[in-house]
Amino acid sequence: MSLVELEKPPKSAAAGQYLGFSLQQLRACYHLFSAADSDSVSLEYLDDVAVHRADGSLLLEQDKSTLTGNPAADKAVDLWKTFSNWATLCTDKTIDPARTDFRLFITPAKTGALVAEMSAATTAAACATVLAKIGKLVDPKKPDVGCAPQVRKFLSAKPEICSAIIARFSLISETDALESVRQFVRAGLPQAAVDNMTAAAIGIARDRYDRMLREGKTRKIDAVVFRRQFQAFTRTSNLAGYLLSKAPVPADEVVAMVVSDAPTFVRQLQAVEASSELLTSAVSDYLRTISDKVEWAEEGSVVAESFNELDGQLIRKHTLVRDEVEDIHSGLSEPERGRRVYRECSKVQLPLDGQSLPSHFIAGAFNDLAEGVRLGWHPAYAALFKGVAQ
């Protein structure tokens, strides 16, 4: 079965945040750096992260981050949920256990006696010994208590599947999950810039995966393409002159809620009959930009007054674009002219305090101004939203 025929599995449980990114995004970035040129890396497709090798073999990785508890403990529910999910993928023939490596990544560093034994088991005899110990985790008198249901689900797969998973299983446990990515960006950088460049690398990967999700594509990136993009970024970007966004792309349900609440900037777009895709993108850009403004001001990356200066530039640019559209495209309907103004404004590129901005920020800043009706998209926006201006 080809990858395009596979149904996307449900998203894994959320992990902790690292430099503003999820653990899954961080680990996907690590694999994009470390995988062979011919490999690709998917995010939340077959597993939290998966490496798709050119020879057709796979690495499935489940990522766990916790400050309390131990997801590697012998009776940890999450541990056996992971193994039962892998067994299901094998039983359904979605993957071939003989050509798949199974990995559990945990941070901060945790381990357990049984999971360590599984990680070390490579022979048929060792796997049989481990399987016997796993079976003892289920109390016949309490088959539905604790981890028992997930253990039973794992063991319900054929013995050869369970043995293959154990034989090809490894546990990776690290105290500092970021270090695995830092090692690829550290060379030639002053120490003070390492975390910023690390965050930039993860951000590049995250943004590409998020764009694929919005476009309805499988979130799978060729490792060599990512590395070329990162290399281009390092050649053209001076991190001292680049404002890095740590604002995550908002969840679909958050975007839907904002659209449903219909704040002014959303109604401004609805007034020009914006498509659902344009609305979704605009809301995402707006929320990320608002978050960036707060973050940058608090950390001192930007002087607060600079946002006002940028707003002034955007208002002037909007006026020029609007006048040009009215002059050149007067034959279009009012909604069509409004959408054209919005698209042209969203293409604007301006620095903030002499620093380059992430791609979503200008569109988000325009929508922030539209929220206060300091500008608008419909030719008659001032009349339509009279009394709303802040």
Could you explain how this protein is built, in words?
The structure is a single chain. With 390 residues, the protein is α/β, with parallel strands linked by helices. It is built from 16 helices and 8 strands. The chain has 2 domains: 221 residues, no CATH class; 139 residues, no CATH class. Helix content is 52%, strand content 9%.
**CA(first)-CA(last) distance:** 57 Å
Report the major sheet: 6 strands, mixed
**Low-confidence segments, ≥5 residues, pLDDT <50?**
1-16
Could you say which structural class the secondary elements and strand pairing correspond to?
alpha/beta
How many β-strand runs?
8
Q: Whole-number average pLDDT?
A: 88
Radius of gyration, in Å, reads: 25 Å
Percent in helix: 40-55%
Count of helical regions: 16
Strands across the major sheet, in which order?
7-6-5-4-3-8
* Sequence of secondary-structure elements: EEHEEEHEHHHHEHHEHHHHHHHH
Multimeric status of the protein: single chain
Shape: elongated
Sheet-strand content, in percent, reads 5-15%
Number of domains: 2
